[in-house]
Structures are given as C-alpha cells and as structure tokens.
Write a structure and sequence with these properties.
This protein has helices at residues 45-67, 75-78, 96-106, 147-159, 179-185, 216-237, 250-261, 267-273, 294-308, 316-320, 351-354, 384-410, 412-415, and strands spanning 2-4, 8-13, 25-31, 82-88, 122-128, 136-140, 167-171, 191-195, 310-311, 329-333, 336-340, 342-346, 366-368. With 420 residues, the chain is an alpha/beta fold. Strands 7-6-8-5-3-4-2-12 form an 8-stranded mixed beta sheet, with helices on both faces.
Amino acid sequence: MCDPIGGLNLHVNLIPKIEGPKRPIILVITKADATAFFKPLSYGAKDSGATISLLLGIVKSLSKVRDNDSQNNDFKNVLDADFMISFIQAESFDYSGSQRLAYDLNNERFGKRAYNISLSDVRCIIELGPLSVSNQLYLHSIQHKDETVVKIRNLFGEYGGEGKDFVFTNVDNLPPSSINSFLRENNTIPSVLLTDGENQLLSTVFGSRYDVLENSQVLSKRLVSLSSIITNVCLQLAKGKKSDQAVIESSLMDEVLDCFLVNQNCSLLQQTLNKTSLLNERLSRYSSVGHSSYNYTTYLTYLASDFSRKKLEYDAKKCNSTFIVDGWTPWVRNGTCYGIAVNVTSAESPAFILKDYKSTTYSTWTESRWSPKFSVKLFLVASQSENIVIFVCGLLYFAVFSLFIVQCSRRSDKVFPNIQ
C-alpha cells in the first residue's frame, strides 16, 4: 500500500479574517521542507532553511509594525490589503504543497468558514527561493509588463544598489518554483521570485546531507537586513509607508538559524514550547506520508504563533474559555491573553482529492508505510522454470565431468607414465 506524500502547510495572518467586505491579499511564500538521499539527513540549509528563518523574521517585523503604539488602531485602516505568510511543505516532490494551496484557493476550499479567502483575492505573490550569503539577488518574473510586478521590482530597487547591503537584478524568466503552481490556476496573478541564482543555483550541495549551515554570522546579518526590506516592500504594496519598526534583533535571527539548522535542542524552542529539553540533534525537514514531520511542523507553528501574537485585553480565565475573540484565536502565554491568526492546511497533492492517480497536471508522489505492529516472514521460492533450468544445467555439468574423469582413468598410463 502507498500513501500520498504531504504534510501541513502553515499560514500566518497579521489581521484575522472576520465578517465584512473582502480585502486583497499580499501572499508571501517559501518552501518549508528539504530532501536528501537519507531522510533523517534532510537539512537543506541553503535550499530552504535560510528562507524559513527569513520568513519568520518578516512575520516578526510585520507584527512589530502592527503593534506599534502610533499605528496600533490604524494598521488595518491605513492599509488597503492584508498579508498572508505561507510556509509550504512537500515542495521537494514536484511542488505538491503549492499545488494544493493554489487548488484550494481557486476552488474556495481554503479555510472557507474561518478565512474566506480565494485565489481572486490575491493581489500579488512574492516567493522567497534558495538564498545564501550572496548580496547579489535576482527578481524573476515572466510578467515584466505587469504594473504590480514593475512596482515590486522598483520598490526592491530603492533598497538596493551600490554601497547598500544588496543588489537586486530583474530577470525576465521563471525557473521551477512554487509560483508556477499558482500561475497554472490563474496566470494573471502578479508574481515575483526572489533568489540568489540568475540561471542556476549557487549551492553545489542541493538535496544533499552536506547542505548545512555555513558562515552563520554573515547569513544572519543579511537575513536581518533582507527581512526589513521585504517587510517595507509589503507595507508599500498595501499603500502603507516605510516603517522604522520593520526590523528584528540580530540575536533573534541567530537563535532561529541555530534552532532550525544546527540543533533543535535550543533555548528559543525550549522557551516557546515550555520544554526543558528537546532532541539533541539537527532537525530534519523531510516531508513524508501523513504528518511524519510532526516535530518540525509543531516547532514552526509555535514560533510563528509566538512571533505574530497580539496582546488582548482579557484575563487568562476568560481567554481560555473563549473560542474566538474579535476574529483572533485566544492563546494564553505566561498568564497573558494573546490572539493569533495561524492555521494549517493539507499539503497533499490535489490529484488525491480528484482520485486522478495518473494525473499529468498535479504531483502524484507516494510512499509505502509499514505499521510498527505489523510483521511478515518471507520464504523465497524459485519459479518452476528456473528450477528446471538449474536441474538441467546440473545434469549437463555432471555428464561432462563424469566423461572427463572416465577418459582420464582410461588414459592414466599415458597421463602418468612414470608412476607404477
């Protein structure tokens, strides 16, 4: 038996979706999984580890802007769009996770009761592709004449250039990426891929056990700077203004990188999960059948919730007894009531919903799974034809060597003339 490869996509909203007129969505996404020949060694530092850390930094900095005292009551009113930050699983398997998200959005299957978001609500998509310590980054898009794409590229251009942390270059093509899954459903959505490769990946260890964290201090510094840039680009795309609050502490980025790419038994995860210790090993992010990446998904969900939480004016007792507060899901942390807008959806390919197992449109990756309580003994028996072949060959060998021995015996006086 084979089961579909999947996992859970994680989505973070800075403003909860409540009843009222729909608002456009600025969707920021990244691949969340990794792969390698041996599943437990799927580290993927350059593949997606850096961008997961970067996206968590963006969640944190957008939340800081939202909670800034001067804009606390005006964040939603000033902006004309909302943000959704998505960490997408199973992308290593022909982009199963993004195919499912695009399919759900296009068919109004995405959080129908709680979020009420469809693909037509997406104003634009910014995808964060593989990143390294390079300061040369590329903005890939096949919609170079689209007004929104032009605006996105121009905004990034304002933050880059000679003498600055990054140089952003526009490239009018689109390599394999999650964006293609959305364009397959609706090819008019303005979409841009940000990555460190122009024509090929900079990493030489893609999909390898050797794709581990290197130059951590340099990478951390670049990710802190880039998270501030992308946060401000998102704010300006939503008709907001550049914010001085759109920055995170370098020490926090150091901790995030350490937790996801060095050792999961880190102080940040211990504190967030309220645990004294975790597995003392590097975290594998391989997507498999069911929810086999449970630890990783749990860590990511808790960190995203902690980074995006908003303090609510309720005591802990009322917070615990309330299911929804002004559109927020209540979450009590250290006796304080917070609201979060984080949810998960399946990353299994739409092919398994449609039962189209020979689909040429959607991924159909599966894996076999064995129950730990199930055992089997195998007794291998050759086929009848193979038995006959072996038997005949044995007879021929026996006949040939018997004839050889008889002839040697008859001619022994000639073979051994001097032996009495």
